[in-house]
Amino acid sequence: MTLAVSVMGLSIAGAMLALILVSLRRREPVVPDSDIAEALQDRLWQIAESEERYRVLVEATTQAVVQRDGQGRITFASEGFAALLGVKPLELIGSTLTPQVIERGASEQRPDGVRVVEERLVPVDGVPRWFSFIEMPAAGRTDGPSWLRAGQDVTGRVEAARSLDEAKSRAEAANVAKSRFLATVSHELRTPLNGILGMADLLLDTPLNPEQRTYVEAFRTSGKALLGLVDGILDFSRIEAGRLDLAAEPFDVAALVEGVVELLAPRAQDKGLEIALDIADDLTALRVGDADRVRQILVNLAGNAIKFTQAGGVGVSLARAGEGQREGFVLTIEDTGPGIPEERIPILFEEFEQGEDSASHEGTGLGLAITRRLVERMNGTIEARSTVGRGSIFRVVLPLPAAEGAPVPVPQPTLAPRKILIVAASPYQAPFLARRLSRSGAAAVVVDSAEAGLDALSGVAFDALIADRSLGDAAVRRLAAEAARSGVRCSLILLSPFDRREFGAPSAKGFDSYLIKPVRARSLFDRLLEPRPTPARGTADAPALPAPVQSEPVQSAMAQSGPGRRVLLAEDNPINALLATKALERLGAQVILARDGLETLAAVDGQGPFDLALIDIRMPGLDGLEVARRIRAREAETGAEPLHLVALTANTGREDVTAAFAAGFDNFLPKPLNLRALPGLLNRRAEAA
């Protein structure tokens, strides 16, 4: 723009001089020669001043200006351009000299014919410098159009930009190297952890006195904690390296959230906390996305809530969010924990950030950072609100679309006009039950003590009673008795999984049935709508209470799974080989061990047939992927029955699973090896046979 103004100024000056000459040629009234000379002199001074102004303006705003005719000969050169060649401007007139160009940078051709180019020149002093030139056509002559070129020294800017690019490239390379290092270290850590946790499981399956069992369970618990840290580091390294691929497959988000809450319930109840779930009625449950990563987000947030909450509980809500193309779902995790100071909320999701007193918290501080990265990868949002001393609320919105052909939400049965009394000192389970019942048309009343419950029963005709056993056995018996006396048609007792066997048959305490916390909506409706037995309460005709679910020992879970099966185990780590061999032998299988890829192929050819092959992906010589490919190729050539191949690896990324299946594996088992998965593999193979 500056150069254009400068050229325009010179053009105006020339035009003014032309007007003077024209006026002199016209037949104007005769004026004295002295007056004409004086006027002409004044006009010439004005033109000279204008020319000087524009010359100074050009010199001040550009460092090098040159104009050439159609043959490339210089018709004008500024002092700055001449200085690049070490000569005076007048010495360049008529020449075709130009500074040496050793490198060209960015260039731009504009629609108006103006071109912007960057060139690295070697001036007369020999020190290369970068110039940004503007080229534009000037007034044409008989020998063709001329070109005006004006440039500015931009060496500092170009070198600074290049330094920044180089620094960015180095940082990215260092980041990739760090991520690869973390992935490698994580793999190497998982390998010995496989031995630690697997041997602990085997040891727990042997006769131990109580003290020994306590010690073994302690180091198994520590091993699992270490495995969780390793998994977090590995996930973070994948995210940073941009290697975390998200699946886009249909999944039931309601079933997923229910499963996570029930998985975390024992951990919460061990601390005397409750965990409750509420799922909106209008939610389309079938979504398209990565179910494993959604589960990871919820486990991280709800697990943290349980970890830092000492009294009260944790509430998880799932509801619909957004409309149209942005329609998704929202997860809300609330707790009654200590809360987070307001000034710390903005840095909660940063890497390696922990609680306010980091010495009192375990872990790497990566959980929330990974959660935020996963949410952002799904184009979602995450936010936190907290009040010190009153708890925290985390809200995650994920715009995962409904799956094609997803069923429309089915309306829940109506409970209108029933009146239901909930007696529970509960921060979340009782309010969630009341919310669920109200959406179905029932009138729900919540009180937090047995005394308040007895008062309510004496004053209002309720159709159903739900009482929490945590109020005490004596208190809930009194509530059940008062409900029976008041004509309440259905009385339910709220139990934790640990309460089921200890509490005994609900009918013996005056209740019709029970609900297990966290309560599923369908269980609630089933209990409230099921026909009442005709015999009086307290008889043996009430529904029997199922036995509690117990975690099975490894031996009972694995018994009688694969007698007579021949298994090829390809594993180069001696501890892991011993672990898998002992576990398989306890199932009655005969194990043939191969310690590298070549031994594995030799065993398949010389010691087969096998019912099952467990092959480690990383082995010396031929790796497991190449072994699988060669086995499949030989089967194709000979027409042999396909061997059931299962990949064993400490690399658990989606790309690793994909590579294993692409190589010909039928199944994939991550390390540390879950011994309870082995019976299913042997049984599946037996059924296929």
Automatic annotation (TrEMBL):
Annotated ranges, domain Histidine kinase: 184-402
Give GO terms for biological process: regulation of DNA-templated transcription
Q: Which EC number(s) does UniProt give?
A: 2.7.13.3
Q: Where is this region: Disordered?
A: 532-551
**Could you confirm whether the keyword Cytoplasm appears in this record?**
no
Q: Where is the Response regulatory domain?
A: 419-532, 566-686
SUPFAM superfamilies in alphabetical order: ATPase domain of HSP90 chaperone/DNA topoisomerase II/histidine kinase, CheY-like, Homodimeric domain of signal transducing histidine kinase, PYP-like sensor domain (PAS domain)
The entry's protein name is Sensory/regulatory protein RpfC
Q: Which Gene3D superfamilies match?
A: 1.10.287.130, 3.40.50.2300, Histidine kinase-like ATPase, C-terminal domain, PAS domain
Q: 4-aspartylphosphate occurs at which residues? A: 468, 616
Database matches in InterPro entries: CheY-like_superfamily, HATPase_C_sf, HATPase_dom, His_kinase_dom, HisK_dim/P_dom, HisK_dim/P_sf, PAS, PAS-like_dom_sf
Which segments constitute the PAS domain?
50-97
